[in-house]
UniProtKB/TrEMBL annotation:
GO terms assigned for molecular function: catalytic activity
GO terms classed as biological process: isoprenoid catabolic process
Organism expressing this protein natively: Acinetobacter silvestris
PANTHER family named among the record's database cross-references: ENOYL-COA HYDRATASE, POLYKETIDE BIOSYNTHESIS ENOYL-COA HYDRATASE PKSH-RELATED
Highest taxon above the source species: Bacteria
Family according to the record: Belongs to the enoyl-CoA hydratase/isomerase family.
CDD domains xrefs: crotonase-like
Name of the protein this chain belongs to: Enoyl-CoA hydratase
Length: 279
Protein backbone atom coordinates (compact mmCIF):
# COMPACT_ATOMS: atom_id res chain seq x y z
CA UNK A 1 0.00 0.00 0.00
CA UNK A 2 1.39 3.41 -0.99
CA UNK A 3 2.26 5.66 1.93
CA UNK A 4 2.24 9.45 1.98
CA UNK A 5 5.43 11.40 1.33
CA UNK A 6 5.87 11.95 5.07
CA UNK A 7 6.10 8.19 5.67
CA UNK A 8 7.67 6.89 2.48
CA UNK A 9 11.28 7.41 3.60
CA UNK A 10 10.95 5.85 7.04
CA UNK A 11 13.01 2.76 7.77
CA UNK A 12 11.01 0.85 10.37
CA UNK A 13 11.54 -2.61 11.76
CA UNK A 14 8.70 -5.11 11.67
CA UNK A 15 7.51 -4.39 15.24
CA UNK A 16 4.83 -2.17 13.69
CA UNK A 17 2.99 -2.21 10.37
CA UNK A 18 1.45 0.78 8.59
CA UNK A 19 -1.54 0.96 6.25
CA UNK A 20 -2.68 4.27 4.78
CA UNK A 21 -6.00 4.70 2.98
CA UNK A 22 -8.04 7.85 2.30
CA UNK A 23 -6.33 9.88 5.00
CA UNK A 24 -6.57 7.20 7.70
CA UNK A 25 -3.30 5.70 8.92
CA UNK A 26 -3.62 2.30 10.56
CA UNK A 27 -0.71 1.56 12.88
CA UNK A 28 -0.56 -2.09 13.86
CA UNK A 29 1.47 -3.25 16.85
CA UNK A 30 3.07 -6.30 15.28
CA UNK A 31 4.62 -8.60 17.85
CA UNK A 32 1.81 -11.18 18.19
CA UNK A 33 4.18 -13.82 19.59
CA UNK A 34 4.52 -11.66 22.73
CA UNK A 35 0.96 -10.30 22.70
CA UNK A 36 2.45 -7.10 21.24
CA UNK A 37 4.59 -6.35 24.28
CA UNK A 38 6.37 -3.04 23.77
CA UNK A 39 10.05 -3.37 22.97
CA UNK A 40 12.36 -0.38 22.77
CA UNK A 41 12.38 -0.87 18.99
CA UNK A 42 8.58 -0.60 18.91
CA UNK A 43 8.62 2.54 21.04
CA UNK A 44 11.18 4.17 18.72
CA UNK A 45 9.22 3.10 15.63
CA UNK A 46 6.03 4.68 16.94
CA UNK A 47 7.95 7.87 17.68
CA UNK A 48 9.34 7.90 14.14
CA UNK A 49 5.86 7.64 12.68
CA UNK A 50 4.34 10.40 14.78
CA UNK A 51 7.32 12.66 14.11
CA UNK A 52 6.97 12.09 10.38
CA UNK A 53 3.23 12.86 10.24
CA UNK A 54 3.28 15.85 12.61
CA UNK A 55 2.78 18.38 9.80
CA UNK A 56 1.06 16.08 7.31
CA UNK A 57 -2.47 17.45 7.04
CA UNK A 58 -3.44 14.75 4.54
CA UNK A 59 -3.47 12.24 7.41
CA UNK A 60 -6.67 12.84 9.36
CA UNK A 61 -6.47 10.05 11.92
CA UNK A 62 -4.25 7.29 13.29
CA UNK A 63 -5.93 4.02 14.27
CA UNK A 64 -3.80 1.97 16.68
CA UNK A 65 -4.52 -1.70 17.23
CA UNK A 66 -2.66 -4.97 17.76
CA UNK A 67 -2.04 -7.99 15.57
CA UNK A 68 -2.98 -11.48 16.71
CA UNK A 69 -6.05 -10.64 18.80
CA UNK A 70 -4.30 -8.60 21.49
CA UNK A 71 -3.70 -4.87 21.85
CA UNK A 72 -0.58 -4.76 24.04
CA UNK A 73 0.63 -6.76 27.05
CA UNK A 74 2.85 -3.97 28.40
CA UNK A 75 6.63 -3.71 28.46
CA UNK A 76 8.83 -6.40 26.94
CA UNK A 77 10.41 -8.62 29.62
CA UNK A 78 13.31 -9.48 27.27
CA UNK A 79 14.23 -5.82 27.02
CA UNK A 80 14.10 -5.53 30.80
CA UNK A 81 16.48 -8.50 31.14
CA UNK A 82 18.93 -6.87 28.75
CA UNK A 83 18.75 -3.63 30.69
CA UNK A 84 19.53 -5.54 33.87
CA UNK A 85 22.78 -6.73 32.30
CA UNK A 86 23.70 -3.23 31.13
CA UNK A 87 22.97 -1.76 34.56
CA UNK A 88 25.18 -4.36 36.25
CA UNK A 89 28.02 -3.75 33.80
CA UNK A 90 28.13 -0.01 34.44
CA UNK A 91 27.07 -0.14 38.09
CA UNK A 92 24.18 2.26 37.53
CA UNK A 93 20.41 2.17 37.02
CA UNK A 94 20.66 4.72 34.21
CA UNK A 95 19.71 2.21 31.47
CA UNK A 96 16.37 1.68 33.25
CA UNK A 97 15.88 5.44 33.54
CA UNK A 98 16.57 6.01 29.84
CA UNK A 99 14.29 3.19 28.69
CA UNK A 100 11.41 4.22 30.93
CA UNK A 101 11.69 7.89 30.03
CA UNK A 102 11.70 7.16 26.30
CA UNK A 103 8.42 5.30 26.72
CA UNK A 104 6.98 8.37 28.44
CA UNK A 105 8.22 10.60 25.62
CA UNK A 106 6.40 8.36 23.14
CA UNK A 107 3.17 8.60 25.14
CA UNK A 108 3.48 12.38 25.26
CA UNK A 109 4.05 12.51 21.51
CA UNK A 110 0.96 10.42 20.74
CA UNK A 111 -1.04 12.46 23.24
CA UNK A 112 -0.13 15.74 21.53
CA UNK A 113 -0.42 14.52 17.93
CA UNK A 114 -2.61 16.84 15.84
CA UNK A 115 -4.35 13.89 14.22
CA UNK A 116 -7.30 12.16 15.89
CA UNK A 117 -5.92 9.00 17.51
CA UNK A 118 -8.25 6.00 17.78
CA UNK A 119 -7.37 2.94 19.89
CA UNK A 120 -9.10 -0.36 19.06
CA UNK A 121 -8.87 -2.84 21.93
CA UNK A 122 -8.92 -6.62 21.90
CA UNK A 123 -7.38 -9.23 24.18
CA UNK A 124 -4.93 -7.94 26.78
CA UNK A 125 -4.47 -4.20 27.33
CA UNK A 126 -2.00 -3.98 30.20
CA UNK A 127 0.64 -1.63 31.58
CA UNK A 128 2.15 0.28 28.68
CA UNK A 129 -0.73 -0.76 26.46
CA UNK A 130 -3.13 0.73 28.99
CA UNK A 131 -1.08 3.92 28.93
CA UNK A 132 -1.34 4.06 25.14
CA UNK A 133 -5.13 3.86 25.40
CA UNK A 134 -5.10 6.77 27.84
CA UNK A 135 -3.50 9.07 25.25
CA UNK A 136 -6.00 8.21 22.51
CA UNK A 137 -8.80 10.57 21.52
CA UNK A 138 -11.30 7.77 20.94
CA UNK A 139 -11.11 4.24 22.37
CA UNK A 140 -13.28 1.31 21.30
CA UNK A 141 -13.16 -2.07 22.99
CA UNK A 142 -14.45 -5.59 22.85
CA UNK A 143 -16.34 -6.50 26.00
CA UNK A 144 -14.00 -9.40 26.79
CA UNK A 145 -10.80 -7.36 26.56
CA UNK A 146 -8.69 -7.52 29.73
CA UNK A 147 -7.36 -4.15 30.89
CA UNK A 148 -5.30 -3.22 33.91
CA UNK A 149 -2.24 -1.75 35.59
CA UNK A 150 -0.42 -4.82 36.94
CA UNK A 151 2.86 -3.08 37.77
CA UNK A 152 2.62 -3.01 41.58
CA UNK A 153 1.95 -6.74 41.62
CA UNK A 154 5.27 -7.20 39.79
CA UNK A 155 7.21 -5.05 42.21
CA UNK A 156 7.49 -2.12 39.81
CA UNK A 157 5.53 1.10 39.27
CA UNK A 158 3.51 2.64 36.39
CA UNK A 159 6.02 5.48 36.29
CA UNK A 160 5.43 7.08 32.89
CA UNK A 161 1.84 5.91 32.58
CA UNK A 162 0.48 7.40 35.80
CA UNK A 163 0.07 11.06 34.72
CA UNK A 164 -1.86 10.05 31.61
CA UNK A 165 -4.10 7.66 33.55
CA UNK A 166 -4.96 10.41 36.04
CA UNK A 167 -5.74 12.84 33.22
CA UNK A 168 -7.94 10.20 31.61
CA UNK A 169 -10.04 8.94 34.51
CA UNK A 170 -9.27 11.19 37.49
CA UNK A 171 -7.21 10.63 40.61
CA UNK A 172 -9.85 8.68 42.55
CA UNK A 173 -10.20 5.87 40.01
CA UNK A 174 -6.51 5.92 39.11
CA UNK A 175 -5.50 5.34 42.72
CA UNK A 176 -7.68 2.28 43.03
CA UNK A 177 -6.68 0.73 39.70
CA UNK A 178 -2.95 1.37 40.13
CA UNK A 179 -2.68 0.37 43.78
CA UNK A 180 -4.78 -2.80 43.56
CA UNK A 181 -3.61 -3.89 40.12
CA UNK A 182 -6.98 -5.40 39.28
CA UNK A 183 -7.80 -6.52 35.75
CA UNK A 184 -11.17 -5.57 34.34
CA UNK A 185 -13.18 -6.00 31.15
CA UNK A 186 -14.47 -3.59 28.54
CA UNK A 187 -17.72 -2.87 30.37
CA UNK A 188 -15.81 -1.77 33.48
CA UNK A 189 -13.41 0.26 31.32
CA UNK A 190 -16.40 2.13 29.92
CA UNK A 191 -17.71 2.77 33.43
CA UNK A 192 -14.32 4.10 34.57
CA UNK A 193 -14.03 6.40 31.55
CA UNK A 194 -11.01 4.68 30.00
CA UNK A 195 -12.86 3.92 26.76
CA UNK A 196 -15.80 5.46 24.92
CA UNK A 197 -17.62 2.44 23.50
CA UNK A 198 -17.79 -1.28 24.22
CA UNK A 199 -19.13 -3.94 21.86
CA UNK A 200 -19.67 -7.66 22.17
CA UNK A 201 -18.08 -9.10 19.02
CA UNK A 202 -15.61 -8.45 16.20
CA UNK A 203 -18.18 -7.48 13.58
CA UNK A 204 -19.61 -4.83 15.89
CA UNK A 205 -16.09 -3.55 16.61
CA UNK A 206 -15.37 -3.11 12.91
CA UNK A 207 -18.70 -1.35 12.41
CA UNK A 208 -18.04 0.98 15.33
CA UNK A 209 -14.61 1.82 13.93
CA UNK A 210 -16.02 2.53 10.48
CA UNK A 211 -18.58 4.92 11.98
CA UNK A 212 -15.89 6.75 13.96
CA UNK A 213 -13.79 7.13 10.82
CA UNK A 214 -16.79 8.47 8.95
CA UNK A 215 -17.37 11.03 11.70
CA UNK A 216 -13.71 12.07 11.63
CA UNK A 217 -13.94 12.70 7.90
CA UNK A 218 -16.97 14.95 8.43
CA UNK A 219 -14.87 17.35 10.49
CA UNK A 220 -12.82 20.07 8.80
CA UNK A 221 -9.13 19.05 8.79
CA UNK A 222 -7.58 22.26 10.12
CA UNK A 223 -10.42 23.02 12.54
CA UNK A 224 -10.00 19.54 14.03
CA UNK A 225 -6.28 20.11 14.63
CA UNK A 226 -6.83 23.51 16.25
CA UNK A 227 -9.63 22.13 18.42
CA UNK A 228 -7.47 19.28 19.74
CA UNK A 229 -4.68 21.71 20.62
CA UNK A 230 -7.18 23.99 22.37
CA UNK A 231 -8.53 21.12 24.45
CA UNK A 232 -5.02 20.26 25.63
CA UNK A 233 -4.38 23.90 26.53
CA UNK A 234 -7.36 23.91 28.92
CA UNK A 235 -5.24 21.84 31.32
CA UNK A 236 -2.25 24.18 31.36
CA UNK A 237 -3.20 27.74 30.37
CA UNK A 238 -4.68 30.42 32.65
CA UNK A 239 -8.35 30.90 31.80
CA UNK A 240 -8.10 34.51 30.60
CA UNK A 241 -5.17 33.76 28.30
CA UNK A 242 -6.90 30.63 27.05
CA UNK A 243 -10.13 32.46 26.22
CA UNK A 244 -8.26 35.34 24.55
CA UNK A 245 -6.37 32.89 22.35
CA UNK A 246 -9.52 30.87 21.66
CA UNK A 247 -11.32 34.00 20.47
CA UNK A 248 -8.53 34.69 17.98
CA UNK A 249 -8.57 31.08 16.79
CA UNK A 250 -12.34 31.32 16.37
CA UNK A 251 -12.05 34.48 14.28
CA UNK A 252 -9.36 32.86 12.14
CA UNK A 253 -11.55 29.79 11.65
CA UNK A 254 -14.68 31.72 10.71
CA UNK A 255 -12.81 33.75 8.09
CA UNK A 256 -10.85 30.78 6.72
CA UNK A 257 -11.69 28.85 3.57
CA UNK A 258 -12.85 25.96 5.78
CA UNK A 259 -15.15 28.18 7.80
CA UNK A 260 -16.65 29.81 4.73
CA UNK A 261 -17.14 26.46 2.99
CA UNK A 262 -18.61 24.82 6.10
CA UNK A 263 -21.14 27.60 6.61
CA UNK A 264 -22.09 27.63 2.92
CA UNK A 265 -22.49 23.84 2.87
CA UNK A 266 -24.77 24.01 5.92
CA UNK A 267 -26.97 26.68 4.30
CA UNK A 268 -27.08 24.77 1.01
CA UNK A 269 -27.76 21.47 2.83
CA UNK A 270 -24.85 19.61 1.22
CA UNK A 271 -21.62 17.99 2.31
CA UNK A 272 -18.60 20.33 2.63
CA UNK A 273 -15.89 19.93 0.01
CA UNK A 274 -13.41 18.26 2.37
CA UNK A 275 -15.73 15.26 2.45
CA UNK A 276 -15.53 15.06 -1.34
CA UNK A 277 -11.74 14.98 -1.03
CA UNK A 278 -11.95 12.00 1.33
CA UNK A 279 -14.17 9.87 -0.90
Amino acid sequence: MTLSNSLADLHLDDSIQLELSNGILRLWLNRPESRNAMSLAMVKAIQQVFTAIQDDQSIRAVVIRGKGGHFCAGGDIKDMSQLCGEAMNIGSNQPYVDFNRQFGAMLEQVDQAPQTVVAVLEGVVLGGGFGLVCVSDVALSLANAKLGLPETGLGIIPAQIAPFVVKRIGLTQARRLALLGNRFDGHAALQYGVIHEVVEHEAALELSLSLVIKQIKRTAPHASRVTKALLHQTLTEPLKTLLDDAAQHFADAVSSSEGIEGTLAFVQKRDPNWMDEEK
